[in-house]
Amino acid sequence: ALNLSTRANVQTGERIVIGGFIITGNNPKAIVVRGLGPSLAKFGITDFLADPVLELRDNGGHLITSNDNWKDTQRSQIEGTVYQPSDDRESVIVVTLAPGAYTALLSGKNQTSGIGTFEVYDNSQAVDSLLANMSTRGFVQTGDSVLIGGFIVGDGASDTVVVRAIGPSLAALG
How do residues 21-50 score in pLDDT, each as one tens digit? Predict the structure, then answer.
């Protein structure tokens, strides 16, 4: 996968968007994680997440890094690339991660809510590791607030993908 993404209604508290992804293989992989909101206005979304905040955590829940306003921390790595958002309030993290499971938390600054996207990009396709899985826990609604998942398989490759939606079985997990 070159890109894995989810568009969802980002709420507050236990209803923020939580995205999980897995890197498989043998080598660390450079990736880009984005949390967008204001740039969705160009697609007709009026209730976008005005100021996305993104946290990246390891499998144990420990904070690896976070970003609020992409220019504040990694501007030189993002500016002028295809990953540069159209709005300075959006969040971007550029990081190299060892194979394993990771979680990104997308929320709104100062407990705000709205439609946002959580995206993960492969920034090192030649490395012997893959973006192999993405899952998202979000508040599923209807209409313009429906949860939408997307992915891009690159280089004209053909592969088998599994897409599933679960809900009732989550009750067993609390």
Answer: 999 999 999 999 999 999 999 999 889 999
Place of tokens 């969040």: 91
Q: What DSSP character marks residue 99? A: S
Q: What's the pTM?
A: 0.87
Which residue, among 48, 13, 16, has the nearest Cα to 139 in the 3D structure?
16
**Segment (H or E) for 65:** strand 63-67
Q: Where are the beta strands (DSSP E) in 14-152?
A: 17-25, 29-36, 52-57, 63-67, 91-97, 100-108, 114-122, 129-137, 148-152
Q: How far apart are CA 167 and CA 41, in angstroms?
A: 29
- What ranges in 72-131 are assigned the alpha helix state H? 75-78
pLDDT at position 1 is: 64
Give the Cβ contact number of residue 80 at 10 Å: 9
Query: What tokens appear for 4 in the block?
Result: 């894995």
- Can you tell me whether residue 147 is helix, strand or coil? coil
Give just the sign of the alpha carbon dihedral 109, 111, 112, 117: positive
